[in-house]
Amino acid sequence: MLTIFVIVFINLVGFGIIIPLLPFYGEHYGASPEKVTALMATYSLFQFLFAPIWGYISDRVGRKPILIISLLGTIFAYLLLAVAPNLIWLFVARAIAGIMAGSISAAFAFMADITTREDRTKGMGIIGSAFGLGFIAGPAIGGFLAGGDINNTNFQAPAYYAAGFAALASILSVFFLRESLPAIKRQNWQLKFKPIQSLKTINLKLPPDVKYILYLTFFAISVFAALESTFAMWTERNFSWGVEQNGYIFAYSGIISAIIQGFLVGPMAKKWGLKSVINQGFLFLVIGLVLLPFSNTLLLLLVSMAIVTYGFSLTSPALTSQLSLQVSESDQGTMLGLSRSISTLARVIGPLISGYIFVYFGKDWPFFVGGIIILIVLIYGIIYKR
Question: FRET label pair with 187: which of 20, 35, 210, 349, CA 20 to 30 Å apart?
Fold first, then answer.
């Protein structure tokens, strides 16, 4: 477990390094806010399209080869990002990174292979903690490397460092990771998989409560992804911030999220129940999103971001747990895959819509619209889902 934890952590540090960089990199090449958010969504779009393919192949050749191949592709994507001569090549680099995001699903599959059913939650939690720590360290490192001068940003250094982290993760995978899926358990090659077919399941035979949870998941993640994709442009216009300051804010948010998900969600769910935790999370999301546009000082901004992060950090794991309780043991894998597909799709749609709202309604309105959407979902849940 320790080996896969370290590999995922190192890989996610590299991923996190890029997060605060992209909006400014896009604007450096003349991208409008709609194009900036489209650039942010490109990774998730190609991840959504190719993740099922990587999963299909990993069931047949094993997890380790997929992990190594996707990490090597990630190195190439980061190097291309570092030397991209124009906006088109930035999109190409992010598309390749999304295509090569198979290491993420391979890591989860690896953990599922090496844990018993009783220890599955603990194993997935270990992967989740690697994600959380990566998203704390990565943005801070990326911000530091890029610098705080908005007119003299170093776009190349963070990308090169991200490639270095991916290279280190691939080396560890080659020399220290043992294959988790023995040949006897691998599936035969049958071209029956359909990458987007799982989404059609939503309107077919899922119980109403399961559909409802999946819809909640989609709205929560799309709104939070919209915030992530427009936040740097908002701080640039409100505070004249660059990559460095935004990197530290994302790291700050990551620390809060790690504390809440690691120490608060479980006890709160036991005390009040998952539905209450979900509703509380949505309520704080609404409050934080509405407060953000009025945050004209650093202190107010830190408070608003803490409230938003608190709300999402309650909602996300509680929705996942609630979903797992609504289906049988035999359907857990299917529901997990479906939930991930919906989450990834939300990270495409949310940023794309928020970019247009940012341009045509104003820089504050992505937050207001997100708050309104979550408020409607919350009211619906209270009235109709008692």
Answer: 210
Token pair of 133, please?
């720590």
Domain boundaries, the chain: 1-181, 198-386
Residue type, 114: I
CB atoms within 10 A of CB 180: 20
Tokens 């104003």 sit on residue: 362
Given a contact cutoff of 8 angstroms between Cβ atoms, the answer to whether 47 and 106 are in contact is no
Cβ pair 176, 51 in contact under 8 A: no
User: How many CB atoms neighbour CB 302 within 10 A?
Assistant: 15
Q: For residue range 254-304, what is the model confidence (pLDDT) as tens digits?
A: 999 888 887 888 889 889 988 999 999 999 999 999 999 999 999 999 999
Q: How far apart are CA 74 and CA 365, in angstroms?
A: 34
Other CB atoms within 10 A of residue 147 CB:
16
One CATH from 1.20.210.10, 1.20.1250.20, 3.40.50.970, 2.60.40.10 for 198-386: 1.20.1250.20
pLDDT in tens, 89-105: 999 999 999 999 888 87
Question: Rounded to whole angstroms, how far apart are CA atoms 116 and 225?
Answer: 33
Taking the C-alpha atoms of 130, 77, 234 and 257 in order, what is their torsion angle to the nearest 10 degrees?
-10
Which tokens belong to 260? 């809440």
Report d(CA 119, CA 199) in Å as an integer: 29
- pLDDT top residue among 246 and 124: 246
User: CB count, 10 Å around CB of 296?
Assistant: 10
CATH class label, 1-181: mainly alpha
* CA 315 vs CA 4, 76, 284: distances in Å: 27, 35, 10
In sign, the C-alpha dihedral spanning 287, 291, 297, 301 is positive
* Closest of 102, 33, 16 to residue 66, by C-alpha: 102
* The residue to which tokens 């993740």 are assigned: 51
